[in-house]
Each structure stands twice: as C-alpha cells, then as structure tokens.
Known about the structure:
Layout: E1 2-12, E2 16-23, E3 28-35, E4 48-49, H1 51-71, E5 74-85, E6 91-93, E7 103-104, H2 112-122, H3 131-141, H4 143-146, E8 151-153, H5 155-164, E9 168-170, H6 171-175, E10 180-181, E11 186-187, H7 189-202, H8 211-214, E12 217-219, H9 230-236, E13 248-249, H10 250-257, E14 265-270, E15 274-279, E16 291-295, E17 301-307, H11 312-320, E18 323-325, E19 332-334, H12 336-345, E20 354-356, E21 374-376, H13 385-409, E22 416-421, H14 429-437, E23 441-443, H15 451-466, H16 473-478, E24 486-488, H17 492-510, H18 512-517
Parallel strand pairs: 1-5, 5-13, 9-12, 14-22, 22-23
Antiparallel strand pairs: 1-2, 2-3, 4-7, 6-8, 10-11, 14-15, 15-17, 16-17, 18-19, 20-21, 23-24
Amino acid sequence: MVTRTGYLGIDAGTQGLSVIFTDDQMRILATGEGGYEMLPGLGPECSEQHPGDWERALEAAMADLRRKLAAAGIEMEVLAIGISGQMHGEVHVDELGRALGPARLWCDGRNEAEGRELTERLGVKCPKRLTASRWLWTIRNQPEKAAKVAHITTPSGWIARLLTGQWNLGIGDAAGMFPIDQQSLDYDAARLADFDALAAATMPTAAVRPLRELLPRVRRAGEDGGRLDAAGAGLLGLPEGIPVAPAEGDQPAALTGSLIGSAGQVAMSFGTSVVANSVGDRPFVGIADAIDHFCAPDGRPINMVWLRNGTTPMNTVVEMFAQVVDPGTGGRSAGFAAMMPQLLAAADDCGGLLALPFMDDEPGLGVSRGGAACLVGLNAANATPGNAAKAMLLATMFNLRIGSDLLERQGFPRTEILLSGGLTKTPALGQILADVFNTPVSILDGATEGTAFGAALMARYRALAIAGRPPEWSAFLSGHASGTPTRFTPRPAAMRTYAQIYDRYRRLVALHGSLEALQPTNGQTAP
C-alpha cells in the first residue's frame, strides 16, 4: 500500500451522499457512495429525511471509498475535509444536540405563504425554500416542537456538527437560511430583529429563542470550520484534529467545483431543473420573483435564476418520437441518438414553431400551474421532430433569459457562461446557448463537475489558510483550470434570429394565464 496525502470532500445530496478523495494536486483518486430516500407516507408538499440516515450513508460512503482505494493499493492521509449539502433544509436540534425528528428539505413546499410574508416584511426576496420561511411556519404550526429547539441548521451544517462538535456554516449555505448583510458578511441584524418581532406578534405563546441564537455561526472560505473531534474521527475512521472547512451548500460548492469565482462568470446547469448562478460585483437592488440570492464561499453575492421546467419538456418531445427515422440509414433509431442531430440541423427559427414548456409550475415567472405546455404555429412544413424538440429547448433558454435580463438592466456583468449538466452530453447545444444569450459559452474539460469536488477544493483552501498563504479566492479557483475547454462564440446572424423569436416568446408567455384557465381541474374537463 502507498500512502497518498490529499483532501476529502463530502456531499449530502437529495438522493444520496458521496465522498471523494483527491491527491494534493486535486486529482480524484477514488469516490464512495451511500444512499437514502425521502421518508415515505408524507402528505402533499412534504419532503423530509431523517438526519440519522445521512450519518449512516456517510459511514457507508467512507467504507466504499476505502474499498476502492485499497483495490488501487492506496492508503489515504487526509490533510483537510470539506463538506457540502442540499441547501435550505431545516434541522431542529435540542439542548443535548439531538435532532428533533426528521428534517424538512429544500423541496418541502408547506411554507409558501410565509415566504411571501417575509419578502414583504423584510424587503428582500425570501423564497419558500429559505430556512427562515420554514422556521416561521414551524413556530406557527408546531409551537410545542419550536419551544424545544436550541439550534437550527442545514444538512451540511448537521454533518459538520457530527464531525467537529461545532455549529459553524459557510456563508453560502447560511445565506440560504437567512439574508446576509453584504457589509458585515453576517446575518442581517436589522432583519433578524424584524423576524423576531413578527414571530412574537403572530404566535406570542410560542416560547422560542431569538433566531440569531438558533442559527450557526457564519464562516467564509478559508476560515475555521472546526477540527475533527473524537466522535467525528470515529465516524470517518480518521485521526482527530484534521481541519474541516466551513460546510457549504450545494450551489456554492457547485460553483467552486466549476472554478467560478469572478464577477461576470455565470454557471448554467441544465437538467430536470435549470439553474443560472451569476457572480455579482454588488448586491441586487429590489425584489424580483425570478431571482433568488445567496453568496459564494468567499461572501460575494450570487444571483440565481432557477427554473423548475428544465430539459423535461424537450425530453418529452424526444420520447414522443422515441422511434424516429434515422436520416443517415433510413432505418428506425431510438431516442436521443437519432433526435439530437435532427435538433441541431433544425433552422434557427424552428420553421416558425414556438413553444411553451410549462409542464410544471414556474414560480419565478408567475406560472402557478403546470400542464399548459404547447406548440404554436404548427403546419405541414414545420412538423418535424427536430423543430419541435428545438422549440422546447429554446423556450427553456428564453425563460432563463427573462430572469437574466433583470440582472442586465441593473448593469451586472455577464462575460462568460460555463455550461454543465445533462445538456453537455450534446456539446454542440452550447452554440445555441451562446447565440441566445449573446455571451461566450465554455464547457470545462479540466475542472471536474460536482459538489463533492467543490467541497474538496474548499478543504484545500482551508489547508492553505492554516499555512498562512491562501491566494485570493477567485485566483485560487482559476489556478486549478486545466485541459482545453470547448468554447462557443455567438454568431451574429443566429443572434438576430433568436432575438426576434425571443420577442415573440415574451408575448406568448404573457398569454399564459388565459391558457392556464383552460386546463382541467381535479381531473374534470375544462369548460
């Protein structure tokens, strides 16, 4: 066995937990996985997991990692540990450090009204995913439980507590719990007082502590996130005393893993949902339904445009034509392998087709119900699988641009889009994105996508800080770029065509309320 020094990254996602071990040059040597699921039998809008399941998954993932390292003849010596996890969770903990039942997750939708109320009261966007929105709901709906709570944290914060015995949290994950003041780089003190006043006025019988006493301490990249204590060492099977980086949320960790840290860089990930995270050079002014706000690990403001309707509408069109004629052979070929070339070959204007992709609701655009996805302008000349699939893809990109335009109006820079997620399986789709946004698009080759890798990078940055020689955060990230990215430059003719289609699309979205009214309710035929 050969001993290799390096960094351990831990990521607690919605569907499972992963760990990676890199060498000291950030080359991944092995990974490990552990699984868990949502708690069964819950009511509508309820999404919960038990913190104990994360702990068991961490043990399983570490065992899996060790098996793979042993098979490669490697014994690991961990220099530092990084943690990331699904944001916006609500883990309740009592005075003795015990979890008070299951944790509510980011996808739990029971507190939409509280999110709207806090947005109006605090004067800053407070989505229903914000942990503070959940906590206000808990105070009102579970006052006996609320009275027992001594700490509130997130999944990554809970794992950090298991490993270090401390209540610390990275500023990006903390911003998903409560709004951050960009001057102090801590929770906004005035808004905390306002929250406590609202909670006391609406539920005076709930003997809850001030929110500031319940929240974890805010830490930035490189700062002290604690060290592995005896309990944490036993859980991971590692020596005590290993430094732990401040635990971060999955979105800040994903930005880190994609080496994004400079103002003007935008990380776009296309999957079942779509996220565009823009690094800002100042805070956003005002409230916009389409934009959420959190922080990068170094505290820089991040503006996030999030779409529930991601690639699913396009995928659905592909599945509709799951057996299509392969133009190259004349035979029949299944699914994406046959459809993607047809999508790429379709004209920029899709032959005049226009699509709405709202198979589900889209809160940022004011779409409260799904089921109104449609194609407009269908005729005998443009009725091709490629046109239909491309129109749905463009509609998703246009929805993302609607939110991004709000940032452009405030003068936020957009110098480069770094694309990740399922769309990169067909890299040429990056050209369409570049044309729609009039912005260069890159698909990184050297940076490993993934929040666990981002966590490992944060571990390395913590080790550099302990050594007293950490570079500036964005310089640290750019220093890890390697390989040759695939790049796409906007094409003037295509940009003009997409700009015209975008204008038509915005008018179509404005008509969505009328289309929504035609949808069936509770399985009944629409009037």
